[in-house]
Amino acid sequence: MSLDSKSPTRPHELRLAVLDMSGTTVSDDGLVEQAFGRAVEDVGIGRDDARYASMLGYVRDTMGMPRITVFTHLFDGNVAAAEQANKAFELVYDAQVAQGGIMPIPGAEDAINELRESGLKICFATGFARHNQNMILESLGWMGLADLSLCPSDAGRGRPYPDMILTAVLALDLEDVRQVLVAGDSSSDMVAGVRSGASRVVGVLTGAHKETALRAAGATDVVPSVRDLPGLIAPRAARHLPSL
């Protein structure tokens, strides 16, 4: 029996959407930058320090990547300083989330439900630590909205590596990584999607990076918001045509 005869789906039939969180499905209104400021202050770098502006610029450029990776770079490989700053970041971010500092991107939950109705499984992927991710999901009442949620520690490496996407493919029993759509707001989301072999790598314009950066990083599509994703799967006009 050939491999094709065993497979119930065509290789490019989308079956999974791997969706970034902050900036893509979730709006945190600058909480990442606020938490970063508090974190570096914790290791002695104030906002009036000459290094602060360039460090903040790097944080913006690397949105979507694991925070510990970013802090390790910022502190020139000083693991102790990076871990101290990362721990401070996680505590501050958790506190901000607990105070109601995050909201869904408008239309995100409806779009996710529409993707599921179209037959796709959903995976939330993030560069945050597991407890930060859970705090976000609990705060929004989104526990159970997705089939799977992943953070870097679940997969081995975070973005721009493709590990979380490939882990989702294995965990959700897909036959082909080309059955995956990846969506995110940062260049690192796009690079991870391209490296994974996903057939659709979609940039959204509600977060970190602009269209030029997203396309330069490999986006196959760029849309204004996550709420536009269902239209990429099956155009609305086609879905709502009356039956004959």
Q: N-to-C terminal Cα separation, in Å?
A: 38 Å
- The CATH topology of the largest domain is given as Rossmann fold
Largest sheet: 6 strands, parallel
What is the number of independent domains?
2
Helix content: 40-55%
CATH homology-level superfamily of the largest domain: HAD superfamily/HAD-like
The SSE string, one letter per element, is HEEHHHHEHEHEHHEHEHEHH
pLDDT under 50 segments (min length 5)? 1-11, 235-244
Query: What percent of residues are in strands?
Result: 5-15%
Give me the count of strands.
8
Instruction: Determine and state the CATH class of the largest domain.
Output: Alpha Beta
CATH architecture of the largest domain: 3-Layer(aba) Sandwich
Radius of gyration: 19 Å
Total of helices: 13
- Backbone structural class: alpha/beta
Name the strands of the widest sheet in spatial order. 5-4-1-6-7-8
Instruction: State mean pLDDT (0 to 100 scale).
Output: 87
- Backbone shape: globular
What features would you describe in this structure?
It contains 13 helices and 8 strands. The chain has 244 residues and is α/β, with parallel strands linked by helices. The chain has 2 domains: 163 residues, HAD superfamily/HAD-like (Rossmann fold), CATH 3.40.50; 68 residues. The chain has a 6-stranded parallel β-sheet with strand order 5-4-1-6-7-8. Strands 2-3 form a two-stranded antiparallel sheet. Helix 11 links the parallel strand 7 and strand 8.
